[in-house]
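Q: Could you fold this chain for me?
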Amino acid sequence: MDRLPAVDRNVLRIGIYEILWQEDVPDAVAIDEALALAKELSTEESSGYIHGVLGRISSIRQDLNL
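A: Sure. Below is the predicted structure, expressed as structure tokens.
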């Protein structure tokens, strides 16, 4: 995580929070909003990485004991 740019790290934090704890926000919306932020504030490669991480979090959310 230390090598990840601060912008990307914070976009991931927001997206993960919305996926795991904001029940009124659909996962797809949380991911799309995070991608929009990443594309605006970071690089194109970053948006691909963020999409992969948030997609995986969304897919395993039910398996997490939170």
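A (continued): Residues 6-63 form a domain with the N-utilizing Substance Protein B Homolog; Chain A fold (CATH 1.10.940.10).
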